[in-house]
Specification:
The protein has a single domain, classed as STAS domain (Transcription Regulator spoIIAA, 2-Layer Sandwich). Helices cover 44% and strands 30% of the residues. It is built from four helices and four strands. The chain has a four-stranded mixed β-sheet. Strand 1 and strand 2 form a beta hairpin. The radius of gyration is 14 Å and the shape is globular.
């Protein structure tokens, strides 16, 4: 299964994006665009209950999103641990594009 994103508006005024399946770099870019479109209208949250797999780039993006006020709901424990480790390590010293290239 690839990434599926459902938009839900709660009575409390949150726009919640329910993310199911896998998040890689390209699917997170789509999610970021959705978040940016909604951020000006109100509060945004990501429901990660049905998240199965994600890339390191997606974890870094979730870390930044949370730091920018996006609420992560039902975040699996392994994702929360990974986010904590990314925060401790700080930003990568080598750009992601360069690290992924084979020499």
């Amino acid at each position: 299964m690839t990434c599926k994103i459902d938009r839900v508006l709660t009575p409390g005024g949150f726009v919640v994006f329910r993310v199911s399946g896998r998040i890689d770099c390209s699917s997170f870019e789509v999610l970021q665009e959705l978040i940016e479109n909604e951020k000006t209208k109100g509060r945004v949250a990501l429901d990660l209950t049905e998240l199965t797999v994600l890339s390191l780039e997606a974890v870094r993006a979730l870390t930044v999103a949370e730091a920018n006020g996006i609420e992560l709901r039902n975040c699996p424990a392994y994702v929360r641990e990974w986010i904590s480790r990314v925060r401790q390590c700080g930003p990568p010293s080598v750009p992601i594009e360069l690290r992924n290239k084979r020499v």
